[in-house]
Structures are given as C-alpha cells and as structure tokens.
Design brief:
Length: 248
Amino acid sequence: MGTSQGRIALVTGASQGIGRACALELAAAGATVAVAARNEAKLAEAVAEIEAAGGQAAAFALDVASEESIKAGAKAILERFGKVEILVNNAGITRDGLAMAMKRADWDDVLGTNLTGAFLLTQALLRPMLKNRWGRIINISSVVGRTGQAGQVNYAASKAGLIGLTQSLAREVASRGITVNAVAPGYIETAMTAVLDEKQRTAMMAAIPLGRAGTDQEIAQSVAFLASDAAAYITGHVLDVNGGMFIG
Ligand code: NDP
C-alpha cells in the first residue's frame, strides 16, 4: 500500500465509526489529519488516539448540514494548514421509513447532510486543491446506493447521488491531478447499524456471501489506499467493500 506521508487530510464524521477509523488509518499512513464533526468531545478523543500512536491531528467542529458551518470550518482548516489535499466526505445519517409515510423533513435532513453537505464542503475546498494540482476526494457512499433498499428512499438516493457526484467531478478535475472516487461499504458494525433489530441483522447476514459484517478498519484501509500515491491512476471509481453483498 502506498503512503500519504506529509499530506494534509480532512475527514468528516470523524468523531466515531468509519470516519474515525479513516482518520486513524490516514494518520498511520503519514498524513496530518483534520478531524471534523459536531461532537467536539469525541473529536478530542480521536485526536488524542492519533497522537498517542505517533500521528498528527487537529479537531474542527463542523456541521455538514449547515452551509455557514461548512464555510467557517473550511476557512479555519485552510488557515491552519494552508491546504487540504485529501478530503474524505464521510459524515452521514439515516432517517428510515417507508416512502408512503416519509416526512419531508426526513428526506431533507438525509439529503442535506449526506449529499449537499459533501458537495458544499468539496466546493469550499476545491479552488486551493485545483491550484495545488494534486488532490484526492473520497466520498463514502453505500451498497444501498448501488442496489436500493426498502425503507431508505432518502438514504439510498443520497448515496446514489454521491456516486453521480463522484463520477462527474472526476471528469471535471482530472486534468488538475485530482482524483475523485467513492467507497461503497456494505454492512459495517458501527453505531449506525447498532439500531438494527435481530431480524434485520439476520437478514443482512444472509445476504453477505463472505458471511460476516465488515469492520470500520476494512473501510478505512480502502480509503487510505485511494488516498495514497498507489491509487494515482484510479478516478471516477466506486470501490465496493461489502463482502459480496453487491457484485456489479
Ligand atoms: P456513525 O453513525 O457511527 O457515524 C456517523 C458520523 O457522521 C459521526 O461521526 C457523526 O458525527 C457524523 N455526522 C453526522 N451528521 C453530521 C453533521 N451534520 N455534520 C458533521 N458530522 C456529522 O456511522 P458510520 O460510521 O457507520 O457511517 C459513516 C459513513 O459510512 C456514513 O456516511 C454512512 O452512511 C456510511 N455507511 C455506513 C455503513 C454501515 O454499515 N455502518 C454502510 C454503508 C455506508 P457527530 O454526530 O459528532 O456530528
């Protein structure tokens, strides 16, 4: 695996779960990592863990559902580090429900956080990245953005939307040395999936050819690969990390 030695990375939703694992992995690969989310206490823990392992990190309070917060966060990070070379758009939420009864607010919240948030943060950081003529943008999609999922029209639309964003932006910025890829995790044991009941868990497991849930570290390793020099010729790609749940 290549390294990210000396690079500046930003991971959203780094206070826990997959985002935190990505921050740890990128730091272990040599990047200085800006960890961003709303929960500042958990961000401080992530920074402490990275520093204890010999890495470098700094915390930034950032709410990707708020355009103001995105602008202020991006400004603070650029002031501190001068640039962001690796951007991991990982922050995400679910508000599940059948389409018939889904509240407009649940649609808006999920699209606003998962898709619009990723777009606005990318936009806020793109100009300096273009000037720098090197960049890695990695969007955390989902297997349900590939397959759909009953009860998740909002979430699946946001995750499929991220794939369209990834493929389109990859074409726009390739000439400036920036790659844009997505990682589409399958069923990963984190706080997000801890809410599933036993019946849902059993059904999920039955749909995984490799016969087990994935780990946040397995997602983080894929992200670290795409962020590294070893992935320089990969762009516009969706990397499925799902134990065979979806084979496309
Ligand atoms: P968690 O619920 O454990 O973590 C979600 C993270 O997103 C938290 O750090 C949270 O931080 C952050 N977040 C949520 N809303 C906002 C916001 N408005 N602004 C900033 N940060 C926010 O989930 P996972 O780690 O499981 O999920 C991470 C990503 O992976 C998500 O995009 C998810 O959709 C995706 N994914 C997960 C799968 C799984 O099986 N777990 C499968 C496929 C995709 P805070 O609350 O501190 O703001």
